[in-house]
Amino acid sequence: MEIKITKTTTPKAKPTGSLGFGHNFTDHMFIMDYTDGMGWHDARIVPYGNLEFSPACMVFHYGQETFEGMKAYAANGTHYLFRPEMNARRSNASNARTCIPELPEQDFIEAIKTLVKLDADWIPEGKDSSLYIRPFFIATDPFIGVAISKTYKFIVIMAPAGAYYGDLKPVSIRVEDEYVRAVKGGTGRAKTGGNYAASMAALSRAQAEGCAQAMWLDGIERKYIEEVGTMNIFFKIGDKIITPALNESILPGVTRDSIITLCRDFDLTVEERSISIDELLIAADLGHLVEAFGTGTAVVISPVNKLRYKGRDITIGSGEAGELSKKLYDTLTAIQRGSAPDKFNWRMEI
Ligand SMILES: *Cc1c(COP(=O)(O)O)cnc(C)c1O
Fold this sequence. Notes:
D-amino Acid Aminotransferase, Chain A, domain 1; binds pyridoxal-5'-phosphate; nine-stranded mixed sheet
């Protein structure tokens, strides 16, 4: 793949102080077009800026789009990606589900590597900082009939990021018992914007009750735990680690997979299975629910200290981040930044 690079003539000042998440973008972005009959073409990197689209553009009306979330890390002048092949593969799985043409995995990775290299001085160093990378695909036919678009864009933008919720600050989560995120046969396994559109009402309720996010139950019985707004979920019950098994309605997180591997490497028992909200409540009542945490690229690990279900508050642990959450966070972030051995071959130096 040939990538034409047009550098900005007006580089921006890097943000200073607390970085936050997702507000400031780097100097450049990657764009590539797809046209039926031609395939993917015109890979280019251009200065970051607004794009112009027809208001009839299909993505605006029917939401045919997918996205990914990944990070680049810097330590002592070396730059890394973390398991980018997992994102490339998942991206194609999301595209297949939404009829967006797949992009060869090596092109996906090359686009990101080239863009990260060009804006490498935007990768913040520091234990909790990274450069968040947002690749996404959108349907661009200027046509408001319902159809599968014949043209698409693949775009990558990047934003320097600090800790998502502040350094391992525990959050409270509201268990949503009316709305559902996804059902069997739906798009829950795909990383597509529509899943998020469908989730906002539950997020709004959670926030109105002082919670950071909503936890989803299964779409049929509203009984089995699926995941949290933007994260997969883990529980430590007694000395076992339990996380819902992947099914058609759960997003297969790269962090989830990495955390399972690390837990097993720590000789902990990990069960990937269905777990009901009732089992969780009983474990909490018996004092067996020791820890809960969400996992995702943006947050890494997000300890959960309170679950709110049908107006009842279930307190988990001491209110501070649990021991396992801290250990997993430190281990994973050290591997990501090159300061711990890469036993599982997860890092890609760029
Ligand atoms: C992206 C995402 C996750 C986390 O996936 P990672 O690959 O670990 O970042 C979990 N749940 C949902 C709904 C997501 O969109």
